[in-house]
Amino acid sequence: MSGNWKHIIHGFRDGFPIALGYFAVSFSLGIIAAKAGLTSGQGFLTSFFTRASAGEYGTYTLISVRAAYAEIIAMCLVVNLRYMLMSAALSQKIAPGTPWIKRILMACCITDEVFGISIAHPGYTPPSYMYAAALLSTLFWASGCAIGITAGSLLPQHVVTALSMSLYGMFVAIFIPPARRDRNVLYAVIASFVLSGICAVAPVVSQWSSGMRTVVLTIIISGVAAWLKPIKTKGDGAA
Amino acid sequence: MEQHRILIYILLAIAVTNLIRVIPMLFIKGQISNRFIRSFLYYVPYVTLAVMTFPDMILATPTPWPSLVALVIGMIAAWAHLGLLPVAAICCAIVYFLM
To answer: CB–CB of A63 and B51 under 8 A?
Structure first.
């Protein structure tokens, strides 16, 4: 039991800086959610149970245009595909004999950052470590979104616009470091910028919803990149 | 009726996002061996985030240039290994002061 408490305390310790970053980002997500017509309670619930920055952003933009339900499903599938890879990688870091219910709960804890610290944990990742880090960061994440929904309308418009940049800043902070490490990721990112820019103004394609464009472009660009430049090492490539 | 529709959107998002996390954990034993699938999954997160960043980010401000500057400086900051919070804060500050 004392060993378990140690893991929980370590989880809170490592989860705290993540929680602070989450709060700032989910606040701006809340501003987008408010535009889509969500109440702060709905924003809290969505954020608490999805914990997916890009996925939520996509979901809220689709809700704001009242897209088809199938579009939400396709968007959540593709935009969160990385969690599949992380889940596969995490399965290698769980002690043999761990009950299925704990494996499922650990899988549900996956976010980019919580996965990052869990994979970096020496040896097998203790379930209680991951639960603690995920719980703390998720509470900040969900509160940030709920407060963003409420306070977003009280703040001056230029402050809201400036704060909305934090979400994009977080995206940039996630995809730039691997682009620096791996030239092929850099090419893929450049291709994404160029094609996404073209699709936003091109005839026909620009009429698609942004969710649809995201899904189609992600599949095409990742597929071409995987075909032209398959990964060499046996690493999981997700951390 | 409107609230009912929003609730369905939310429940779908929650269900799909968590199933994606749980399914590999339940079914994948050992590493995925197919090289194309591994490579595809490797590129997906970065491509998705890049596609969602551009041009959406520069369309989020009334005129594109404050957010374009924020994007460029944010990318330089991330390239220099500044973390999630500093990069996000830099982007916000630039747009706040330039707008």
So the answer is: no
